[in-house]
């Protein structure tokens, strides 16, 4: 789960608390735990908000170089030293989140914060 300190820092950095920011944070914490060291993160997603909010989650947790790529859905590929880890967000969840209203964002952020990792992501 996300330590409160990390969450607070990310929200401050990003400017608001939302589910896509939480996705970036959780993917980053997972990548750091698995890889120890991340040098670059490639983010594949539509080049607009709220999808791009994922990026600030990665930046606030890892602070690595981030390269944006056009894509369908949301996929993050973390590059370490000689290793790579790619994580995709389940399409159904993205649909649910992207159709949300502004006043629902905090509630949805809490939901994503508390979901099982495997209910959010597919590692490949
Ligand atoms: Zn945002």
Tell me the major beta sheet. 5 strands, mixed
Distance between the termini: 21 Å
| CATH C-level | Alpha Beta
Number of self-contained structural domains? 1
The CATH architecture name reads 2-Layer Sandwich
- At CATH level 3, the topology is 60s Ribosomal Protein L30, Chain: A
Count of helical segments? 6
Major sheet: arrangement of strands: 2-1-3-4-5
Specify the helix fraction band. Answer: 40-55%
Bound compounds, each kind once, are:
zinc ion
Describe it for me?
The protein is α+β, with helices and mostly antiparallel strands and about 120 residues long. The protein contains six helices and five strands, in the order H-H-E-H-E-E-E-H-H-H-E. It has one domain: 60s Ribosomal Protein L30, Chain: A (2-Layer Sandwich). The chain starts with a helix and ends with a strand. A five-stranded mixed sheet has the order 2-1-3-4-5. The chain has helices spanning about 5-15, 20-35, 55-60, 90-100, 105-115, 115-120, and strands spanning about 40-45, 65-70, 75-80, 85-90, 120-124. Zinc ion binds near residues 14, 18, 20 and 53.
């Amino acid at each position: 789960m996300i330590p409160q300190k990390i969450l607070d820092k990310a929200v401050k950095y990003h400017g608001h608390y939302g589910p896509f920011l939480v996705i970036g944070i959780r993917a980053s914490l997972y990548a750091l735990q698995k890889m120890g060291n991340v040098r670059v993160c490639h983010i594949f997603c539509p080049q607009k908000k709220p999808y791009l909010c994922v990026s600030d989650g990665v930046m606030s947790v890892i602070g690595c170089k981030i390269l944006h790529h056009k894509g369908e859905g949301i996929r993050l590929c973390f590059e370490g030293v000689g290793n790579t880890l790619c994580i995709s967000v389940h399409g159904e969840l993205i649909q649910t989140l992207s159709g949300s209203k502004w006043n629902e964002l905090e509630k949805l952020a809490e939901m994503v914060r508390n979901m099982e990792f495997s209910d959010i992501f597919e590692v490949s």
